[in-house]
C-alpha cells in the first residue's frame, strides 16, 4: 500500500497538476484561437465595463432575478462552490504538504471549519444528486455523466472527511482521497467542470452584448 | 396539409407537409454531411463553449413561456431544446434519422421564439437563441423548413420584400396614403426618393399590404413635426427579414445591403423604422454583422426612440391625453434588443393618463410567442403557439383586472401574436400601436 501511496504522493500528484493547469491553458488557448477565426464578434463587442457589471451580478448571491426565483438552489450552489474551492486551498494538511515540498505556506482553516465545509460540499452533492433525480426538467436534461460528475466531485470530500475523522480504515480513505482528488483535477479541463474557467468568458461575452450593444440588463 | 392535434407532449409532432417533403428527399448521409459541415465551418468557440459548459442545472426553465405554459413539460425547457436538437446531432456525429431531423426542425422553428429571455436566466449567459438559429440554419441548408415561412423567404428573394408587393403597388400605396392625408392636411407630402433628407423612413412589407393606415399616421407625424424625410420607391423600402429566421443568412445579407444602400444612395442622414421588432434586430444586430459592419453603416432609429425624441424636443405637442387606461407589452427585440423600454414608457406617460404596468416587465417581459418567425410558420402551428403562451394571457388578464383597457405593443409580430392570444383566451382588451395613441393625442 505504501508503494501506491508514494505514487499518489509523487508522480500522480505531479501528473494531476500538470494536466490540470496544462489542460486549462490548452482549452483556453484553443478556444481563444478558434474565436479569433470564427467568432470575431466576441472581441469586437467586448466591453470590460459591461463584462464586469454582468459578472458582479452573477457572482453575488441573489444578484440576478434567476437566482432569486430559485432561492434554495442558489443558497446551496453558493455554499457548495465556496467550500469546494476554499477547503482544498486552505486545508492545514494541504498547506503542510506544500510547505514540505516547496517551503511556502499560507493562512489555513481550522480543523473544525474545514470539516464543516467538507460536509457542506458532501450534502450539497447529495442535494444536487437528488434534485437531478426528482425535478422533472433537470432529470430530463441529465445524462449519466451529469450524475457521475457529482460523484467525482463528492469523492475527495467524502474520503477526506473520513480521513480527517480518523474513522476505521482511514489509511485507505487517505489513499482514495488522494487518488480521487487527482482524478478530479485531471478531468476538470476536459469535462463540463471546465465551466470553472469558461464561466468568466461566456459571462463576459453575454454582459458585453447585453450592455454595450443592446443597452439592457442581463440579470 | 397534415394538421393533427398533438396527442402527447413527449415529442414534437410534425405538422407541416413541407418539413415532411423536404426530409423525404434526404438520406442519412446527406443529413450527416450537412450537419458535420456546419459544425466544422460555423460551429466556433461560442458554439462549443455553450454546449460544453451547460451544467443542465435548469435555471433557464423558469424563463421560457413554452415551458411555463405547457405545465412545465420538461422537453420545453430551453436547455432541453438544445438537448433534443444539437445534443442529438453531436452525440450521433450528425448521423441522425429523418425523424430526428424533422423534430429538430419543429423545435427550432416553432417551439422557440429566439426571445433571449433564457439567456438572462442562465448563470453562464448561454445564448440558446444562437443555438436554435444554428439548428435552423442546418434545416435551411437541408431544405427542411416550414412552408409558410419559407414562402415568405422566397418573397424576400424574388421581390426584396416580405409580401410579394410589386414596385407599382408600393408606389401606389404611398400615393394613396398621401391623397387620403391631404383631405386633412392639404400640404402634406410623402416625399419619395428625396436626396439628402434627414430621415429615411422604412417599414415592413405588411404595412402597405394590410396596415396602410400606419403609413398615413407616420406621414402625419412627420408633417406635423416638420421632419425633412423621405421614403424610397426602390427595393430596400422593406426593412423586414424572415430569412434571418429561416437560417438563410446569405439572403439576410442581401436584404440588409439593399436596405442600407438605398438610404446611403439618397445620402439620408439616418434610418427611422416603423414599429417592428424583428426588423430592428435584423438591421441593428444581425444583418450588419453578416455584412461585416460592427454597427449599422448609417444610424438606425426605432420608431419608439424616434417618438421619444420628438416629444423631448417638443417637435410634437400633446393636445389631449389618451383617457382610457393602458398597459404596455415590451417587445423582445427592442427591449432585450436595444433597451428601449424607458423611452417607450416616457412616450406613454406623456400621452396617456393612466398607465398600468404588466408584470413582469421591461427586460423580463414574456414574449408574445409570435416572434422569431414562429407566427410566420403559419396556420399549422397557431394552436400550439397560442396554447404555449398561457403565461402571456395570465399577464394580460392581470393587467385587465387592474383596469387596463388598451394594450400598447409597438411591434407588428407582437400584434399578431397578442391578437391571437386575446381572442383565444377571451380577454377583453384592445391592442394598439404606439403611433395610434400618439396620432390620437397630438396637436395636428
Describe the protein in words:
The complex is a heterodimer of chains A (219) and B (444). Chain A is mostly helical and 219 residues long. Chain A has a domain at 59-209: Transmembrane di-heme cytochromes, Chain C (Fumarate Reductase Cytochrome B subunit, Up-down Bundle). Chain A is 81% helix and 0% strand. The radius of gyration of chain A is 20 Å and the shape is globular. The model of chain A has no long low-confidence stretch (mean pLDDT 95). With 444 residues, chain B is mostly helical. Chain B has helices at 17-24, 28-42, 45-53, 65-69, 78-91, 98-110, 128-142, 147-159, 167-184, 206-210, 212-224, 243-246, 249-265, 277-290, 303-312, 332-335, 341-351, 382-387, 390-401, 412-424, 434-441; strands at 199-202, 229-230, 270-273, 299-302, 326-328, 355-356, 406-408, 430-432. Chain B has a 4-stranded parallel beta sheet with strand order 2-1-3-4. Residues 1-7 of chain B have low confidence and may be disordered.
Strand content of chain A: under 5%
Helix/strand order of chain B: HHHHHHHHHEHHEHHEHEHEHHEHHEHEH
Give the strand tally of chain B: 8
Second rung of CATH, namely the architecture of the largest domain in chain B: 3-Layer(aba) Sandwich
At the first level of CATH, the class of the domain at 59-209 in chain A is Mainly Alpha
User: Compute the gyration radius of chain A: what is it?
Assistant: 20 Å
Question: Going across the major beta sheet of chain B, what is the strand order?
Answer: 2-1-3-4
Number of domains of chain B: 3
Structural class of chain B: mainly alpha
* Main structural class of chain A: mainly alpha
Helical coverage of chain B, percent range? 40-55%
The biggest beta sheet of chain B reads: 4 strands, parallel
Summarize model confidence as the mean pLDDT of chain B: 95
Oligomer: heterodimer
